[in-house]
User: Fold this.
Amino acid sequence: MALWFSGVAGLLLLLELGCRVLPVSTSTETGYYTDPVILTYPARHRWVVSTGWDLRNAQRMQANNLGYAAQHDFVRNEQAVALIGDSFVEASMLDIAERPAAQLERQLSSRPVYAMGGPGTALLDYAQRVRYADEHLGVRDFVILMERGDVRQSLCGSGNVNGPCLDPKTLAPRVETLPPSGATKRLLRHSALAQYLVSQLRVTPQGLFNKLLLPTKSAVAQHPELKATAAQAKAEQVQAMHVVDVVGGAFFERIKPHVRGKLIIVLDSDRRAIERGALQPDPARQRFIDLARAAGAVVVDTAPIFAAHAARSPLKLEVGPYDGHFNALAVSLLTQAAATAVNAD
Assistant:
């Protein structure tokens, strides 16, 4: 038995050493360092990110003075443009020169772009970064890069909230900050093998539980009669429109005192449907566009931009079939449009 345990320990040690040599994603130790409701990395923190079991798109990242994955330190500068969003802004799977902030800055020529991306966040979190950029950095002009789920994910409990959110039932405002990590998690952060299992292979206790104990098919798949009726679909659409009104209204009301220049909203679209030539109208998305324009924002709708690209080129706009984030080509298309909006009189 002792020999068996020694063999297992030796194997784990070899795996640990191997993972330390390879570009395995490392711990980021995020926290509320600069603001009570804005989650960032520690200032000057360094970490590694990669995708999948074969460690694709490996990048070595470094946080700036305020804890953002950005090529600049952020200092007070009214000429700076704040680029705000989630992992689509951080774009850790791209080389730094291909990321949205770098490409937008090249398009703008003489103005620095502050990349204030926060992975796993949503629209009401963006409002807090707008506030911070105004109060602490003197920023006047903002570009908000929105992914398709940013409105819905602003509801509490979505898993994409770092602070302010709306109750999913009552839509009343709340604040949900993330609890500090427990002792076990803090300990496992120091193991490259543990990070490989969690970050690369997505092995978690909850995931194992779901695979072992939960049904393999959804209730709808097993019982076709549970599919939504036309009346249910209509009710869901009405609810989605209401959520857009309340979340969008809260967002624009919260940022109104802090936008003293231009507000550009770049809105992602259903890229796969565009590729197939099967894009359908989305009333909730259009409602948000209307709200944004009524609030004085310039909306860059990527749907016609990406449709024009699809008509002339077979090149994809995603990092890969395993990652739906924008690739460098998509970033180029949307930053050109955003720069035109920023520079417009």
The chain has 13 helices and 13 strands. The chain has a mean pLDDT of 91. The CA atoms of residues 91 and 170 lie 34 Å apart.
